[in-house]
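::Amino acid chain::
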Amino acid sequence: GILKAGGAYVPVDPEYPAERIDATLTDASPQLVVTAELVEESAGMIGYEDTCVTDLERRASLRPAHPAYVIYTSGSTGRPKGVVVAHEHVVSMFRATEGLLSFGADDVWSWFHSPAFDFSVWELWGALLYGGRVIVVPPDVTRSPADFLHLLAQHRVTILSQTPSAFYQLAQAAETSDASMPALRAVVFGGEALDARRLRRWCARHGDEAPLLVNMYGITETTVHATHALVASAGDDTLPGSPIGQGLSGLRMLVLDSTLCLVPPGVAGELYVVGTQVARGYLDRPGLTAQRFVACPFSAAGERMYRTGDVVRWTAGGLLEFVGRADDQVKIRGFRIEPGEVEAVVAGCDGVAQAAVVVREDTAGDKRLVAYVVGSVPTNGLAEAVSDYAASQLPRHMVPAAVMVLDSLPLTVNGKLDRGALPSPQYTTGTGRLPVTAREEILCRLFADVLGLDRVGPDANFFHLGGHSLLATQLISRIREAFGAELPVRALFEAPTAVSLAARLDGAGVARPTVRPAIRSNVTPPLSYGQQRLWFEDRLGGPTAIYDVPFAYRLTGGLDVGALGDALRDVLVRHEVLRTVFASVDGRPRQVVLAVEDLPAEVLSVVPVASADLTA
């Protein structure tokens, strides 16, 4: 009714938080609110007739370029942004897909997703434009794969639209259900990355009678769907991990580097979309629109392209493969990691039906990869199996620090993975057996201290408890102090439990005393290996705190005031935090400083001294 009247609608999901609804309505400033409940007693009532509205009855003629709807998506600043999509954009999208799926009046479409999620445009408009029927899925049914399966069978749904996360759960429920879906002829995926390997069991179960599986990549700013890939043969190992295929008719897919140059096949780059489905922009956000809807250097003057922020690459066969988000890449202990790559490996472990890998920082400054998995069948020891499998497939820095086994992955109202609802990781401390020797007891205590845990058993794997290379260095140092034994860091990687490391101590040498030879003040000492590495890292990546290891060190003997002053200056130049003034609780400025004791005035003048916590 709104579209025929010539207006544009703004869908609002009543299940959204009140703050989100208020922000949407404030930003959109709608002329009228249509709701199931009377908002105000003075609100006007609207009547309608079953005849078509004409341009004579509208305030102005309705044109294809006029807005049809405004859907709000999350903004990086926390403020939602409204995407303005015109009638012609939606019509172009359906014209580009009707040959692929052969829509007709006999089709029954499922309306599974929130109206505030643009996947609903596909579900609702597809039926209306082609004379089909819509089955509105109740909210409680969307949260129950078994009930949803029976609804699909009861109403003989022919076109099912699902996010991959939701469909994985539906497919798992279908394995133990007596409900069948003989009328289902197409499953359309969208909204998030699809792992085609997770569809193998579904395809094997349905054989040649399996419905058509189509992965439709797209974003709100390019009108729901922009590419398509047939994944009916999902058991084929030659398929890319997350195929998004080819652009729809009327769209061009450009994979560009940071200088807006085309990249060759096999090289990852950011995806830009050009063509008839690119939205008008963001409602009343000209600055943001200019940032994301940019001029296309490969087209005629005036044509725009949308910068998706998604990283893709062309395969040798001319298909697009989704790699991840440009802003999903994380850096953990100096290593750049794509969580999606780790997730794909975890999902390939036997017994895993669903998987998600996220980066958590439950302790400030300590980022860790955590894997959440759902088993295909009840399996004891699945967490350990996933950890071992990941360790066999990935470099050590990419192996999840913890694996959590869940009954199901939490989903948002839009059917996407709800990362905020994932539980905090629980590390298996292996406390089933107590230490049997004094050496094991001391090692268990050192393990717990370094890892920040209350207790660690003698059979617990240091790296399965969240340990990493930097913590390994600290642990070996603590062992050296406790036992006076010289163990290489490599020993912990080869014997990562307290019981196995205890055996290594028998053959360990006596710890070497730390000796610093005297150096004449007028001679520049050579850089150690560690200093050379830090110098290289500084030139390559700029100042960073990744390689800093804080410790207290007591020196004896004569003091070279000039050398110490130069060293302090170098530290201050490198670390901005030591030159930063913070406001304390009482409002008085307080500075983070190096604290030293009993130093000559020439050195103390280098930096303010607040206390004498650190002795040099």
Q: What stands out?
A: The chain is about 30% helix and 20% strand. Residues 234-239, 591-598, 606-616 have pLDDT under 50 and may be disordered. The first helix runs from residue 2 to 5.
